[in-house]
Design brief:
Layout lengths: L4 H13 L21 E2 H4 L4 H11 L6 E6 L2 E6 L6 E6 L3 E5 L4 E2 L3 E7 L4 E8 L9 E6 L2 E8 L2 E4 L5 H10 L2 E7 L5 E7 L3 H11 L2
Antiparallel strand pairs: 1-6, 2-3, 3-4, 4-7, 5-13, 7-8, 8-11, 9-10, 9-12, 10-11, 12-13
Helix pairs in contact: 1-3
């Protein structure tokens, strides 16, 4: 399956540059990138429509995305970067935690993309908001099911592509999903994404990108 790290890199840039002054004013050192101002995991867990739209814009390399609809925490978008139509569902965690507690990090995102020109449908990707421990796996938990995700820089994808369809079906039917990871400095994170509205968002992008 094609893996497109450019998307996740763009989302990282968006997460680092979206301004949320009402949520965080104090500067602190970063877990893995000391040169940037960071927000606590508890702060970055909350997504505003403005920040989500900015992330969507960055996700398509600056091309202007169109919001197809907002379904719970999940936005459904389409765009045409380079003349190639793409669609994706995007959300931020409803809550997040770090161990040790309150370690700073960039915002986290989960998104599910469909790129017809690449014959990619419903590819699950996650931005964890920090550089991941080299050669480590992230973990997705939904109900009793667990899925390993291979990692690159601050992004993660389902490790066994044969499990992706099963994961998508679980996400459609579930109430929330947990994503766990470990930073290069040993900080462990747990993010919870609410899944209400995801099924509708996936249906919408499926209609738009056939």
């Amino acid at each position: 399956m094609t893996r497109n790290y450019t998307w996740l890199l763009a989302l990282t840039v968006a997460a680092a540059t979206v301004a949320m002054p009402a949520l965080a004013q104090k500067k602190s050192s970063r877990d893995d990138k000391p040169e940037k101002t960071q927000k606590s995991a508890a702060t970055t867990a909350q997504a505003s429509p403005k920040s989500q739209n900015a992330a969507a814009t960055a996700a398509v390399g600056g091309a202007q995305p169109s919001l197809l609809g907002q379904y719970g925490d999940w936005g459904a978008y389409t765009a045409n970067p380079g003349g190639k139509k793409i669609c994706f569902a995007l959300a931020k965690p409803s809550k997040g935690a770090t161990e040790p507690p309150n370690r700073p990090r960039d915002p986290a995102y989960m998104f599910i993309s469909t790129r017809p020109a690449e014959k990619v449908t419903n590819e699950v990707s996650v931005i964890l908001g920090y550089g991941l421990k080299p050669s480590s796996d992230a973990l997705v938990e939904i109900g009793s099911a667990k899925y390993a995700m291979y990692t690159q820089n601050d992004g993660a994808w389902i490790k066994n592509a044969a499990e992706e369809n099963r994961l998508i079906e679980s996400l459609r039917k579930g109430s929330d999903v947990v994503v766990k990871g470990e930073s290069a400095r040993g900080t462990k994170t747990t993010d919870v994404y609410a899944l209400k509205g995801l099924a509708q968002a996936l249906e919408r992008i499926g209609q738009e990108c056939k």
